[in-house]
Amino acid sequence: MSTWRAVSLMFRVPRRGRGFWFSLAIDVLWPLLAIFTRLRFRGGEKLPKSGGVLLASNHLSYADPVTVTAFALAAGRIPRYLAKADLWRVPVVGKVLAGGGHIPVERGTAQARHAYRGAVDAVRRGECVIFFPEAGFSDDADNWPSARVKNGVARVALETGAPVIPVVNWGTHAVLPATAKFPRVFPRRTVNIVTGDPVDLSDLTSTDRQSLDEATKRVMRAITELLADLRGERPPSR
């Protein structure tokens, strides 16, 4: 996608329902993303244009929410995220998250279940909710999805029946490595975001632990296979 096309696309994506601060953040960051990276989007047509849907993405960088947001908007959906509640207390960031209708997660506390209910309610309202099932950056030395994952997206999917669309980012870790304080804008990096077909969970009809683990395994397998295809490499066996 050329820089001009990426910038011009910004004026055609959904705006209603974004909230002032979330919308402002998008308007500021999108042109920077288009100028300093080569954006490559593929598979946006696989996102339903309406109705509740879950996107499950790998996680490599603090830049991932920016790139996945751009991808979802380009596909005609306004994304809602689950994020640690501490971010709501950060100046500016908290306003962006609150105004955008995102969902705080009180990690390690009994209140964490409220985030799950918030995600279920959002999906039932017809929202597009994005999960990073690894609940943190990949701990794999070669940036394959972690073996350490959470069952949150599976739980919401099995309760609501909403489709789960696998998403992969590749290149964000070169733009903004997990240990870097500032983005690396030169040389200009390519960032790919690709979606696959919905993960088939139709045979799983309950939210018992076995079903949740199986659903999570299928989601992560879909993400890993999608990333392997994008990278042209074989993932580790585990």
TrEMBL record:
GO terms for cellular component: plasma membrane. Keywords: Acyltransferase, Membrane, Transferase, Transmembrane, Transmembrane helix. The chain crosses the membrane at residues 20-39. Residues 53-172 form the Phospholipid/glycerol acyltransferase domain. One of its GO terms (biological process) is phosphatidic acid biosynthetic process. One of its GO terms (molecular function) is 1-acylglycerol-3-phosphate O-acyltransferase activity. The keyword Acyltransferase applies. SUPFAM superfamilies: Glycerol-3-phosphate (1)-acyltransferase (SSF69593). This is 1-acyl-sn-glycerol-3-phosphate acyltransferases. The lineage of its organism: Bacteria, Bacillati, Actinomycetota, Actinomycetes, Pseudonocardiales.
